[in-house]
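## Example pair
The file below holds two records. Each record gives the amino-acid sequence first, followed by its structure token line.
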Amino acid sequence: MAAQQTLILVKPDGVARGLVGEVLARIERKGLRIEALEMRTLERTVAEEHYAEHTDKPFFGELVDFITGGPLVAMCVSGDDAIAGMRTLMGATNPIEATPGSIRGDFATLIGENIVHGSDSPESAHRELGLFFPGRF
């Protein structure tokens, strides 16, 4: 097992539904550590850079509008195999496919509003943490 850091977001739908505490509790119960935590409304330029891989997709504008449409909670989560551990804890991107007991399986109803985001690789984690916590990780 390798110690890793990953970016985790509780998206605006999760914040609006009062699920921040639930997400934090699940992360801590998993044995992972929260290294940094910040609530803010994301700037459009950061959102566009964060989702740059989707620029040419038809849902890009809606995705950026959604993630900038209200406060979110950004955090750096660390621990042994944190990326894979968090991806399992979050569940499949499509809530219909997400395993019961996962965050998305228990709380999400729409693929576009699925409560949480997590980095999908060490490279993505490094890039995303740099966007959300410049100069800290």
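Second record, same layout:
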Amino acid sequence: MTNQQVPVEVENYIADLSPDKRAVLYPVFDAVRDAMPEGYVLGMGWGMPGWVVPLETFPNTYNTQPLAYVSIAAQRNYHSLYLMALYSDTEADAAFRAEWAAAGLKLNMGKSCLRFRSLADLDLDIVARTVASVPVDDFIAIYERVRAKA
């Protein structure tokens, strides 16, 4: 696991949030950061903080952008946590959803976007385990498998 330095752009994004949004986003950000496997890099992408596979590690992406792994954002009426490995791996997605249900929490999630209004809507342990469960090489392999089918 890594405890990377937070880039200035990410610090600015979080600092610019309202105190209420910051109070929700910071603990989620910290849980994700602390669980992040080695090799992912934190930065800003698509207007939100997120961890990516840097192009130096894997340059063969469909859009020439770094391969996004996890992103987090404060939306107008909720927050979003994008867990891209779940989008690409149906078994991991099913396991995540089953673990979430077993925790007794209502899941508000699309293909990869976990939406939440407050910390009470989340199980940060499940989030951290999910984030920690996909090393960079595994995520690249998942991406390549999905791209080959497309």
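Notes on the second record: The mean pLDDT is 92. The longest strand covers residues 67-74.
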